[in-house]
Amino acid sequence: MIQLATEKIDKEQSKTEKKQQREQRRAEKKAENEKLYQEVMEQDSVDTPEVPEEPKKKNKWVKRIGIVLFVLLNAAVIYFTAASEFSKKAPEPIKFDFTNIMYLLGGILCLLVFLGCETAKYMIMMRHLGEKVSFRHAFCTAALGKYYDCITPSGAGGQPFQIYYLHSNGYSNGAASAMPLSGFFTMQFGFVILCVFAFIFGNGVVNGVLAPGIKITAYCGAIGYTIVPVMIIITGIAPKIAMRIVAFFVRIGAKLHIVKKPNHTIMKAVRYLNNYSENLKTITKNKGMLFKLLLLSVILQFAMCSMPFFAVRTFGGDIGFFRALILCVFIQAAISLILTPGNSGAAEGLFYIVFSSLGKSGTFWAMLLWRLLCYYSFIIIGVLVYGVNAVTKIRDKRKAARLNKEAES
């Protein structure tokens, strides 16, 4: 009996000690988080808004190898989809009549609607922030931002270049930062709204077409779309809670040896979220304008996800608009987890798998047209905008030099 009582007392003491140790660890983490948060706040209070420098070539060989691998990946996917399409039967001759041409023009119209809505968003923000309203700068910001999204992994290059572009064209630091970040924020939410609609009303459409794994991946991708916007909102409402959430996941990453410098990463992430939150507050003060930005974002995402319908119908496929739209939303959500530029490889492969399973003709050509509309066209437009801007700068410099000579004479 005495031995049992002693063991019971030892267990109780052990539980008490473990509880005290847990509470001590929590207190230490809380103190560490508080210290990090104060350091971030102090640093933010003395820092001036930073404007990124023009993108430079950090490592030419790494970039060249990356481009080669990127081209090979696209070529491989196109080759295998073509082989799958034409291995069992000879390719049918492509015939275009008036109906096919109208569907092709419909796909091009979707591209124009996307660029038009994104340009309108920047013009609205320019007017609201009291900056000069310029269609040219708004369009270039939209087009070049999409260009950098398409050529960088995870689309990470768009907003930094947009901030640089706006600042270099005379927009204030605050406006140059607020507009791209708010544009990104509303675009993310625009797609999330479309996902919610598709997941609620489109399950009957995708059942039997999409494999369960693709559907689960799409749900995960949609959740991924919400992470940054939700964290930005939490940062604005309860910054210390956001700090704890960031610290929790970063420290898990450190334990898994994914993150090497946890404290530095936490500070960097929190400052990033603070920057987003502060810039977003500038825009969200006007609720009417925020509604316009969200509405335009939903429309442009709707236009983007409508492209597969026009692509498939252009090459003789028989598919309803609603079905094609819902399938594209699922595809876009699923491939968002792929970190290659423009989700290359996964986008082409998944499009072909999904739409060829419906028994539609010309799926390979429809896939090429879809990627041209939703991806390669933005790269082409970005290159053209770069070329026009370069010619304009040269012309302006020559004009300024000529005027200086005339003034001196």
Automatic annotation (TrEMBL):
Protein name: Phosphatidylglycerol lysyltransferase
Composition-biased stretches (Acidic residues): 41-52
Top-level EC class: transferase
Protein topology in the membrane: Multi-pass membrane protein
Gene name in the database record: mprF
The keyword Glycoprotein is annotated on this UniProt entry: no
Enzyme Commission number(s): 2.3.2.3
Reactions mediated catalytically: L-lysyl-tRNA(Lys) + a 1,2-diacyl-sn-glycero-3-phospho-(1'-sn-glycerol) = a 1,2-diacyl-sn-glycero-3-phospho-1'-(3'-O-L-lysyl)-sn-glycerol + tRNA(Lys)
